[in-house]
Amino acid sequence: MRRYLSPAVIRGAVGLVAVAVVAELVSLSGLLDPRLVPSVLSVIRRAAELAVDPEFLGGVATTLRSWAGGLLAAVVVAVPAGVLLGALPGVNAATRTLVEFLGRSRPWR
Q1: Between vectors from CA 30 to CA 25 and to CA 34, what angle results, nearest 5°?
Q2: Is 21 helix (H, G, I), strand (E, B) or coil?
Q3: What angle do CA 69, 73, 75 make, to 5 degrees?
Q4: Separation CA 54–CA 58 (nearest Å)
Q5: What pLDDT is recorded for position 68?
Q6: Exposed/middle/buried for 94, CB within 10 Å: 0-12, 13-18, 19+?
Q7: Is 46 left (phi over 0), alpha (psi -120 to 50) or beta?
Q8: pTM of the model
Q9: 16, exposed or middle or buried, with CB in 10 Å at 0-12, 13-18, 19+?
Q10: pLDDT digit string (tens) for 29-88?
Q11: How far apart are CA 6 and CA 12, in angstroms?
Q12: In terms of Cα–Cα distance, which of 28, 51, 54, 52 is closest to 41?
């Protein structure tokens, strides 16, 4: 069975390549300082180097372990706290004002 790429995927890939080519041409023209805006090819080259660098990969692994530990700690604390807040009417009444205040103070709403 053959699988064909959808026109949207093809347009996206062509657009990505076009943007990369334009960015590389702007970089090669000298309009931008290469220390501030590196060329697309130098970024791709450096990414390939980092993909096989043991020190970098060790740092990524450490970051992911720290993230997973923080997420686990948050779940271990937040889930029981949420159950207590929802299940015990006294705890719910005592914390309702604070929870509603914190729920409405988010700037992204």
Answers
A1: 95
A2: helix
A3: 115
A4: 6
A5: 98
A6: exposed
A7: alpha
A8: 0.59
A9: exposed
A10: 888 888 888 899 999 999 999 999 999 999 999 999 999 999 999 999 999 988 988 899
A11: 10
A12: 28
Instruction: Spell out the residues 6+ positions from residue 86 whose beta carbon is closer than 8 angstroms to its own.
Output: 92
Output DSSP code: residue 3: -
Q: How far is Cα 7 from Cα 9, in angstroms, rounded to an integer?
A: 5
| pLDDT for residue 67 | 98
Residue with tokens 């949420």: 82
Note the pLDDT tens digit of each residue in 79-102. 998 898 889 999 889 988 888 888
pLDDT for 105 equals: 62
Q: Are 71 and 60 in contact (CB under 8 A)?
A: no
What residue ranges do the domains of the chain occupy? 1-52, 57-109
Label residue 52 exposed, middle or buried (CB < 10 Å: 0-12, 13-18, 19+): exposed
